[in-house]
Design brief:
The chain has 648 residues and is α+β, with helices and mostly antiparallel strands. It has four domains: 23-225, Heat Shock Protein 90; 231-390, Ribosomal Protein S5, domain 2 (2-Layer Sandwich), CATH 3.30.230; 402-543 and 581-608, 3-Layer(aba) Sandwich (Rossmann fold); 615-648, no CATH class. α9 packs parallel to α11 and α13 (438-447) crosses α19 (589-597).
Length: 648
């Protein structure tokens, strides 16, 4: 019997909807701001701020003032630029202000070079999108000795543009409140997020003064951001926030140059970090997903370093230098200006202009090579840093190659002696449980499914990977056992195709020590085996802390809060009998199997780091696990109010 599609004769042209004006924005806000969560909520503010910054880029403004009002949901952005045109557009019979705020793809940035030589706004939708998604918006313009005002609600003008009388100076002021119908009632602006973004803007434009007045604080707090040296001041701050020493101490690479349509400002330094960080911007708009300008920077850096090494005959013996070795530990601030940037989407997270790669490369390579030749002591120290990275990578690759994926002949060679391996050679069904302590390992070995589940016990707390260099990591027995068992290498040498287990569970006691060990392991995975997290291979096992029996009914509680919820939710007459497990080793194998090992009954949390949260995650790990005790102390004291009970 076939499937028959019934045709409907009622579908006519009259049923085709056409969304007019700003309706498309309210119907599909994610198309314009990326989503209706916290990031989208703040994106409205970035659109308004970027319009003011475009006036700064083109030398028409020197000041931007942002006020977060006491409700935390309304905000004002004011600049001293030229002010949006207020005269009537002859074609559309509306004022310039009303066109900008009510019509998609309306603005003064399409005719490149006439009104704006370069700008972050391209599509003429930023102001109108903010207006469409705001329950209330008021724009004031000072221009020609007068002040004009117009109010909107959800994109609809509530009055004509009014002349409010005389006024000194020029500029635009926008006050708006995001619409709770779109974003929900709980979201509000985060002063810390706003301050971070505004401070970055001030670094990108020397001579610009940005103020942030936070009226959610009592009394209100005013911060002023002004950095005459621009990104040359920004780079040391970024490096300090990461908590990694620079290599070598002292000078940084800094230059400003132009190639065709592209202007490049770059600040660059190497550090002891095991990863690279490039904070890139196009026309002052941050591009967290990088793009062709990032690619040009990386290509130029690698070529310049290779040329310097070859010219001065500094090639290391016994090891070849790869591009990732050269860039390891590199921290760069890249600010690019382009007349016609082609971004990926309205949120502008990535630059797509294909010609920019070669243009940035052509600027960076000779400039960096010249700097290296003029500063040989500095350059030689960086070459030494690069060589160490290459040797660490080769050592990691050698360790990984010693443990290939299991075969019928050699699947047990070179594996850690403590590893109780599984019989299966299929990574898709194989699981590795990294367990705290030999006693817990014993229970886990008895309770596991020997065909698909492997157990690797650890002794005590592992090395803190955030404070250890590559040599210490390679010498640490516990971490090397993990790397050997997984078989995929570490650092830049991670090869997921050689991963021996599709799921890796961190199975620690449900107490403070167990949480600490899990944090240490997560730090190691995040810093040195991040592809495993990105691919969804890492999990946190959820062993219970309590067993609660009501007569013949048994419940398992993960922590004290979960225990209380179970007790509060029980409606029977039986009295509870509560057992607290001091550790995994106290559980008999059957209990451990049922609660933590068996895929049919266990609970587990997959470890993920969303793209938008990577930089914040990096900062938190640095503060929690790094050498800077002050940063950790501040983090603890600032969040102490959220801790009801501390298990020590």
């Amino acid at each position: 019997m076939g499937i028959k599609a019934e045709r409907s004769s009622s579908y006519t042209a009259a049923e085709i909807d056409v969304l007019e004006g700003l309706e498309p924005v309210r119907q599909r806000p994610a198309m314009y701001i990326g989503g209706t969560g916290k990031a989208g909520y703040h994106h409205l503010l970035w659109e308004v701020v970027d319009n003011s910054i475009d006036e700064v880029i083109n030398k028409h403004a020197t000041r931007v003032d942002v006020t977060l009002h006491a409700d935390g949901k309304s905000v004002t952005v004011e600049d001293n630029g030229r002010g949006i045109p207020v005269d009537i557009n002859p074609k559309h019979k509306k004022s310039g202000v009303e066109l900008v705020f009510t019509v998609l793809h309306a603005g003064g940035k399409f005719d490149r070079g006439k009104n704006y030589a370069v700008s972050g706004g391209l599509h003429g939708v930023g102001a109108s999108v903010v207006n469409a998604l705001a329950s209330d918006l008021v724009v004031q313009v000072k221009r020609g000795g007068h002040r004009f005002e117009q109010r909107y609600s959800r994109g609809v003008p509530q009055n004509k543009l009014k002349d409010m009388g005389g006024a000194r100076g020029t500029g635009t002021t926008v006050t708006f409140t995001p619409d709770e119908h779109i974003f929900g009632p709980k979201l509000c602006f985060d002063p810390a997020v706003i301050a971070e973004r505004l401070e970055a803007k001030s670094y990108l434009h020397s001579g610009l003064v940005i103020t942030l007045r936070d009226e959610t604080a009592s009394p209100p707090v005013v911060q002023t951001f002004e950095h005459a040296a621009g990104i040359a001041e920004y780079l040391p701050k970024v490096i300090a926030d990461r908590g990694k020493a620079v290599v070598p101490p002292g000078a940084q690479v800094f230059f400003l140059a132009k190639e065709g349509e592209v202007g490049v400002e770059l600040a660059l330094q190497w550090t002891e970090a095991t990863d690279e960080l490039v904070k890139s911007y196009v026309n002052s708009v941050p591009t967290p997903m990088g793009g062709t300008h990032d690619q040009g920077l990386k290509a130029g850096v690698v070529k310049a370093m290779r040329n310097y090494i070859a010219t001065h005959k500094l090639e290391p013996k016994g090891v070849s230098l790869l591009a990732e070795d050269i860039r390891e530990g590199m921290v760069a601030i890249l600010s690019v200006y382009h007349r016609d940037p082609q971004f990926q989407g309205q949120t502008k997270d990535r630059l797509n202009n294909p010609e920019v790669t070669a243009q940035v490369d052509a600027i960076v390579r000779p400039a960096l090579e010249g700097f290296l030749n003029q500063n040989p002591s500095w350059a030689n120290a960086v070459v030494g840093r690069v060589t160490l990275a290459a040797r660490a990578r080769e050592a990691s690759r050698a360790a990984a190659s010693a443990v290939t994926r299991k075969t019928a002949v050699s699947h047990r060679l070179n594996l850690p002696g403590k590893l109780a391996d599984c019989a299966s050679t299929d990574p898709a069904e194989s699981e590795l449980f990294i367990v705290e302590g030999d006693s817990a390992g014993g229970s886990a070995k008895q309770g596991r499914d020997r065909k698909t589940q492997a157990i690797l016990p650890l002794r005590g707390k592992v090395l803190n990977a955030e404070q250890a260099n590559s040599a210490k990591l390679l010498a640490n027995k516990e971490l090397q056992d993990i790397v050997s068992a997984l078989g995929c290498g570490m650092g830049d040498g991670v090869e997921l195709s050689k991963l021996r287990y599709g799921k890796i569970f961190l199975m620690m006691d449900a107490d403070a020590d167990g949480h600490h060990i899990a944090t240490l392991l997560l730090t190691f995975f995040f810093r040195h085996m991040r592809p495993l997290i990105d691919a969804g291979h890492v999990y946190l096992a959820q062993p219970p802390l309590y067993r609660i029996d009501f007569g013949k009914q048994t419940f398992w509680a993960l922590d004290d809060l979960h225990k209380q919820r179970i007790l509060d939710g029980y409606t029977g007459n039986a009295k509870p009998n509560i057992t607290r497990f001091k550790g995994l080793g106290e559980m008999n194998p059957e209990t451990l199997k049922m609660t933590t090992l068996d895929p049919r009954t266990r609970q587990a949390l997959r470890v993920t780091v969303p793209e938008a949260e990577r930089e914040a995650t990096d900062v938190v790990i640095t503060e929690l696990m790094g050498k800077d005790v002050g940063a950790r102390f501040r983090l603890i004291t600032e969040n102490a109010h959220e801790i009801d009970e501390l298990d020590v």
